[in-house]
Amino acid sequence: MSTKSVSAPVPGARRRLSWNDPGVRAVAYQVLAVAAVGLVIWFLVSNTLHNLAARNIATGFGFLWREAGFAIGETLIDYGPANSYGRAIVVGLVNTLRVALIALVLSTLLGILIGIARLSRNWLINRLASVYVEVMRNVPLLIQLFFWYAVITENMPAPRLALHPLPGVFISNRGLKLPALQGDALDWMLWGLALAIVAIVGLHRWGARRQDATGKVFPLGRAALGLVVCLPALGWLASGASLTLDMPVLKGFNFQGGMTLTPEFAALLAGLTIYTSAFIAEVVRSGIQAVNHGQTEAASSLGLRRGLVLRLVVLPQALRVIIPPMTSQYLNLTKNSSLAVAIGYPDIVSVVNTTLNQTGQAIEGILIIMAAYLTVSLSISIFMNWYNKRIALVER
After folding, report:
1. What is the pLDDT of residue 1?
2. What pLDDT is stored for residue 209 in this prediction?
3. Nearest one of 105, 96, 95 to 276, comparing CA atoms
4. What's the DSSP call for residue 70?
């Protein structure tokens, strides 16, 4: 019985192009797909430019250097109507980053607490946490923003009848008034705080290496508290400059002095924090439950208290499960901050809307918003992916 031998392809032999070859078809389909997408983009761009030219609408980003002519009610950097549209958009972006960063921190802390509470053995705490998660996750964020804004503006008293729970603290329908530090020494104190944060990060890494080598736990919490208090104080002393506490005072129909958290900012911060914390709580709960129960039993057999078991054994392992979905929640929070326009907070969307209404540069304005959110989202993703790689188990 004879068998036919199949000859192997000769190395270096020239490959014949044939439509029956799957590789050839794959390349051809990809070229056609790219060409089709390019054709659609060319058609849209050329058609848009033709329509703009027919209506005598200027294109380009030259409007960014023209005078804005409108005020922004809440700013962290110097701005006035005489500044440019570009400056106004930067103010809006700073306002967006301000509320997003604060909400990220608060929602993370609250979400961790609620997530741990959902695993509590106490029936009441467990049920309350479950109700919180189910209610907040299933009510749209926009409705929550309207609710908190109505609570602050309609149910809070007028400035003359403002709540006064602490010295220098006033709560009214104009927002929350707080004392503010003023003076040239403030910059030195901020540099001292930044140096303290860097020192805490360095101590954390050194303490981890020391614990791995000797088994001794470094008291990072007390050291961090000392650095946060002492270094800004040293900066104030070294500057030799004045530092005063500006207390808010009721004058006429409103308060003067101090710092203000406006109702719009407070409502947006409350809505983003409460809404996102419900999702983060579920991420934390699932991450903790993903850790093998044998780890908890082994730690308890060593005599560790439940709090130490959770902090030193369970959470470090759960982080590897928590971080990826947590990144998605951070991205959602940042993008959800664009709903600020619904309650009048001057974020980048609100400022760009005012700009394009005055200039007619709608396409450029939308592109600016898209580029801003894309940059912020990619920055968060890069940082979270970097952190996820740092805590990931290294396979041998």
Report:
1. 47
2. 85
3. 105
4. -
